[in-house]
C-alpha cells in the first residue's frame, strides 16, 4: 500500500496537471468546453479534500432573520480559542458582563461526537453575512441531523440564562438590513409598584399566565398564539408603566412602533415580520394615527404667499391623501394582528394605547384584534397607598381616610399624585 506522502505527491501532481489543462482550455477552447474542464477540476478537488461547507446566512430569502445564525453566534461565544488573534469585546449599557465575539475571517473549532467542525465568520458586501461550517462530507448526516439541532437547543438554554430585556425602535439607517434598533430595557416598573387596583392587577397577571400556558389550545382551535390588549384612559394614568410591568413579568422584549415613521403597508408588513417571538408590540396613541396631518404644510399656510384658491386646494388634497394613508396603515396593522400574517410568529403580545377610546372605530375593538380592554382610571385610594409605600415607605397613616374622601371628589392621575 503506498504511503501517505506518495499519495499526496500523486494528488498534487494531478491537481497541477488539471490546473495547466484548465489554463490552456480557457485560452484556446470554446466556452462550453472550458466550462466542462472547470467542472471536472472542481469535482476532482472535492474528492481529494472530501470537505463540505455549510453556509448559514443571517437573513433568509424572505423577510425573516435566520434563527440558526443567531443560535450559532450565541453558542460559539464561549468556545473562542486562545489562538484567535482578533476578538470583539463589548460591554452594553447597564450590563455587568463583557460579551465576546469572533472578528470576521477568524475561525472557531468545535468538536461534537468526535467530529471536528470549523466555524468561520465572513462579512460580504451588505446585507449578506454568513457563517461557514466546514466538515467532512462523510459525516454530513451527523452535522445536519444531530449537530445543528444541538446548536439550536443549546442556544435556547443560553439565551434564557443571559437574556437582557431590550426596547426596539424603528431603525433610521436605510443602508443596514436591520429594521429595528435596540437599547437595554431597564425599567423598574412591576405589578407590585403599579398604582392600580389589586383586583385589576390580579386579572391582568392571571390573563398573561393563562396566555403563556395555552400554546396547545391556540394550535388546536386554529388561532395564532397572540393576545391583544387595549389600554385606555387619561394621560398620566400609568399606561407606559403597565407595559413595562408586563415586559418584566413575562421577560419579553418590547417593540415600540410609531406609525408616523412607517412609509406604507409594504414597509409596515416588513417591520412587523421582523419582530421576534416572546415579545410585546406597542402602538401608542392609536386614536391619533388617523388624525395626523402635514404640519409643514400647515405652517406654510400661515404665510400670505400660500393664500390662494389653487394652493389651498392643493394642500387640502395633499392632507386628504395623508389622512387616507394613515387610515390604511392603521387598518393594515390591525389586519396583521388577526389575518394570515399574524401566524408568522408565536407567543406575542400586542398592546394598543389611547387617551380617547370613544374615538376609535368599533371595528378596531372587536375580539381577535383587541382581546382585553383595560381602563386606566384616575388615582384611587388603593393606588394612592401604593404610591405612598413606593415613594415614602408609608403603609398606614391617620390621614388616609381624609385622602380617600378627597380622591373620590377630585380627578387626579397617579402621575400627578407622584409629583
Fill in the keyword field for this structure.
four-stranded antiparallel sheet; 13 strands; alpha/beta; seven-stranded mixed sheet; 419 residues; Rossmann fold
Question: Whole-number average pLDDT?
Answer: 72
Provide the low-confidence segments as ranges. Answer: 125-139, 290-306
Q: State the order of secondary-structure elements, H for helix, E for strand.
A: HHEHEEEEEHEEHHEHEHEHHEEHHH
CATH names the topology of the largest domain as Rossmann fold
Strand order of the largest sheet: 8-7-10-11-12-9-13
Cα gyration radius (Å): 30 Å
CATH architecture of the largest domain: 3-Layer(aba) Sandwich
* Proportion of residues in extended strands: 15-25%
Q: Work out the count of structural domains.
A: 3
Overall geometry comes to elongated
SS class:
alpha/beta
What is the terminal-to-terminal distance?
89 Å
Sheet of most strands: 7 strands, mixed
Characterise this structure:
This protein has 419 residues and is of the alpha/beta class. The chain has three domains: 1-49; 51-162, no CATH class; 166-377, 3-Layer(aba) Sandwich (Rossmann fold), CATH 3.40.50. Residues 125-139 and 290-306 have low confidence and may be disordered. The strands form three sheets. It has a seven-stranded mixed sheet, covered by helices on one side. Strands 1-6-5-4 form a four-stranded antiparallel sheet. The N and C termini lie far apart (89 Å). It is built from 13 helices and 13 strands. α1 (4-28) runs antiparallel to α2 and α3 (67-76) packs across α4 (140-162). The longest helix has 30 residues, at 309-338. A hairpin with a 5-residue loop joins β5 and β6 (129-136). Keywords: ATP-binding, Hydrolase, Magnesium, Nucleotide-binding, Signal. Its cofactor is Mg(2+). It comes from Citrus sinensis. Belongs to the AAA ATPase family. BCS1 subfamily. Residues 225-380 form the AAA+ ATPase domain.
Amino acid at each position: 500500500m503506498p504511503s501517505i506522502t506518495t499519495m499526496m505527491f500523486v494528488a498534487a501532481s494531478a491537481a497541477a496537471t488539471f490546473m495547466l489543462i484548465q489554463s490552456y482550455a480557457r485560452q484556446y477552447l470554446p466556452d462550453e468546453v472550458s466550462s466542462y474542464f472547470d467542472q471536472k477540476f472542481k469535482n476532482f478537488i472535492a474528492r481529494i479534500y472530501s470537505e463540505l461547507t455549510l453556509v448559514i446566512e443571517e437573513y433568509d430569502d424572505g423577510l425573516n432573520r435566520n434563527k440558526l445564525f443567531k443560535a450559532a453566534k450565541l453558542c460559539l461565544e464561549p468556545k473562542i480559542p486562545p489562538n484567535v488573534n482578533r476578538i470583539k469585546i463589548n460591554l452594553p449599557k447597564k450590563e455587568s458582563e463583557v460579551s465576546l465575539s469572533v472578528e470576521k475571517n477568524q475561525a472557531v473549532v468545535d468538536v461534537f461526537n468526535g467530529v471536528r467542525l470549523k466555524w468561520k465568520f465572513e462579512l460580504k458586501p451588505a446585507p449578506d453575512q454568513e457563517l461557514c461550517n466546514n466538515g467532512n462530507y462523510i459525516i454530513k448526516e451527523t452535522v445536519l441531523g444531530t449537530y445543528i439541532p444541538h446548536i439550536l437547543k443549546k442556544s435556547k438554554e443560553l439565551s434564557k440564562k443571559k437574556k437582557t430585556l431590550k426596547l426596539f425602535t424603528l431603525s433610521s439607517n436605510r443602508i443596514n438590513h436591520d429594521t429595528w434598533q435596540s437599547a437595554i430595557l431597564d425599567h423598574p416598573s412591576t405589578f407590585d409598584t403599579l398604582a392600580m387596583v389589586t383586583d385589576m392587577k390580579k386579572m391582568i397577571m392571571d390573563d398573561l399566565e393563562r396566555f403563556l400556558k395555552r400554546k396547545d389550545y391556540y394550535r388546536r382551535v386554529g388561532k395564532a398564539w397572540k393576545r391583544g390588549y387595549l389600554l385606555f384612559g387619561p394621560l398620566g394614568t400609568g399606561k407606559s408603566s403597565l407595559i413595562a410591568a408586563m415586559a418584566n413579568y413575562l421577560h419579553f422584549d418590547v417593540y415600540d412602533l410609531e406609525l408616523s415613521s412607517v412609509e406604507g403597508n409594504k414597509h409596515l408588513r416588513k417591520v412587523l415580520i421582523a419582530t421576534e417571538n416572546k415579545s410585546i408590540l406597542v402602538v401608542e396613541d392609536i386614536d391619533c394615527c388617523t388624525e395626523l396631518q402635514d404640519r409643514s404644510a400647515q405652517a406654510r399656510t400661515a404665510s400670505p404667499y400660500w393664500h390662494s384658491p389653487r394652493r389651498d386646494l392643493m394642500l387640502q388634497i395633499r392632507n386628504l391623501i395623508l389622512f387616507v394613508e394613515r387610515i390604511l396603515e392603521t387598518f393594515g396593522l390591525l389586519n396583521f394582528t388577526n389575518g394570515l400574517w399574524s401566524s408568522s410568529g408565536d407567543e406575542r403580545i400586542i398592546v394598543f394605547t389611547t387617551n380617547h377610546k370613544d374615538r376609535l372605530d368599533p371595528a378596531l375593538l372587536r375580539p381577535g384584534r383587541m382581546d382585553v380592554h383595560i381602563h386606566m382610571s384616575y388615582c384611587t385610594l388603593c393606588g394612592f397607598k401604593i404610591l405612598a409605600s413606593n415613594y415614602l415607605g408609608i403603609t398606614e397613616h391617620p390621614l388616609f381616610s381624609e385622602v380617600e374622601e378627597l380622591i373620590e371628589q377630585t380627578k387626579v392621575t397617579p402621575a400627578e399624585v407622584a409629583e
